[in-house]
Amino acid sequence: LSLSRSLGVWHNFVLCVAALCFLFLLPVLLFPVYYTGAGALVTEVVQGSAADGPRGLSIGDMVTGLEDCDVRTVEDWNSCLTIHTHTPQTGYCVPTHTLQPSWAHGRVYRRLDTSIECCSNNSLTDLCFSYTKLQEMEYACLPVRKMLSGSRVCRSNADCLTHTHLDKDHDTHSPSVCVTPSLENQTRLIRLTHPPNTQMLFVGYPPHLQYAVSLTNFAPRFGFLNLDLPVVMETFCKYVVSLSGALAVVNSVPCFALDGQWMLSALLEATLVTVVTDRQHRELIGFFLLLGGSALLAANVALGLWMVTARNTMVPSVLCLYC
């Protein structure tokens, strides 16, 4: 009887394991029609976001890199964004003859976060860059896309010693210097590579890209295939794993009216029959264990409900501070 009543736990457990295996084998099962490992395929772009626009990302684009960080999977995409979020802004090797004095573009001023702004014309194509010249910090307002085209990343001027640019006006090779975007705190300039399109330039907080773009590891081999099919299958498997696994764990808790009650009863009968010979004593031990398990489960449910309600009530109170 106890075994038959605990079959629900095993059904959920088997279903969870089956969905987990299917999830891991999905690249193999879909290999004839979908391939992986070439990059992260864009399946959705939030309209009006920083990733949207004529030179932004589009559905069907294959992202292969964020600056010098290669992207082969969605996990690489998230990892690269995390790296760029928690590391200083990278620099770029640009020819020295293109650096113009900052006063040529207007007044240099300091922002509230102490960063420097030298492009005071509110241009959408120019950006303020800082660089070291004769042990002093200099600033220059440069056209971003033109300057970054073909340039490699750097951390200091030493990284640009072997990197030269061809000066078409004088037909000579000009030395390069490492310039770093002068941006506000937590703001980054990131180049996204998605061939054969032109590199996308993103200026903002890197995690915003994670919310603006949805990607998948699966790229269709044929044009008529749906981009969202692997995503739907992955999501379905994850839901099955989460729900079935949670039901199996909850039902296994020694609590009144759950399968764990009968599992505990069978366990006590199998292990304590030689230690505690009196059946009433065994039932009393089982009762207290069930009571403790029920209290623990009830406390977890109450804590979860309290956290949900507290989170919902905190938002209006915070907003009212600015009323």
From TrEMBL:
<dbReference type="GO" id="GO:0016020">
    <property type="term" value="C:membrane"/>
</dbReference>
<dbReference type="GO" id="GO:0004222">
    <property type="term" value="F:metalloendopeptidase activity"/>
</dbReference>
<dbReference type="GO" id="GO:1905897">
    <property type="term" value="P:regulation of response to endoplasmic reticulum stress"/>
</dbReference>
<comment type="function">
    <text>Zinc metalloprotease that mediates intramembrane proteolysis of proteins such as ATF6, ATF6B, SREBF1/SREBP1 and SREBF2/SREBP2. Catalyzes the second step in the proteolytic activation of the sterol regulatory element-binding proteins (SREBPs) SREBF1/SREBP1 and SREBF2/SREBP2: cleaves SREBPs within the first transmembrane segment, thereby releasing the N-terminal segment with a portion of the transmembrane segment attached. Mature N-terminal SREBP fragments shuttle to the nucleus and activate gene transcription.</text>
</comment>
<keyword id="KW-0472">Membrane</keyword>
<dbReference type="InterPro" id="IPR036034">
    <property type="entry name" value="PDZ_sf"/>
</dbReference>
<keyword id="KW-0812">Transmembrane</keyword>
<dbReference type="InterPro" id="IPR001193">
    <property type="entry name" value="MBTPS2"/>
</dbReference>
<protein>
    <recommendedName>
        <fullName>Membrane-bound transcription factor site-2 protease</fullName>
        <ecNumber>3.4.24.85</ecNumber>
    </recommendedName>
</protein>
<keyword id="KW-1133">Transmembrane helix</keyword>
<dbReference type="GO" id="GO:0031293">
    <property type="term" value="P:membrane protein intracellular domain proteolysis"/>
</dbReference>
<feature type="transmembrane region" description="Helical">
    <location>
        <begin position="284"/>
        <end position="308"/>
    </location>
</feature>
<feature type="domain" description="Peptidase M50">
    <location>
        <begin position="8"/>
        <end position="291"/>
    </location>
</feature>
<feature type="transmembrane region" description="Helical">
    <location>
        <begin position="12"/>
        <end position="35"/>
    </location>
</feature>
<dbReference type="GO" id="GO:0005737">
    <property type="term" value="C:cytoplasm"/>
</dbReference>
<dbReference type="GO" id="GO:0012505">
    <property type="term" value="C:endomembrane system"/>
</dbReference>
<dbReference type="Pfam" id="PF02163">
    <property type="entry name" value="Peptidase_M50"/>
</dbReference>
<comment type="similarity">
    <text>Belongs to the peptidase M50A family.</text>
</comment>
<dbReference type="InterPro" id="IPR008915">
    <property type="entry name" value="Peptidase_M50"/>
</dbReference>
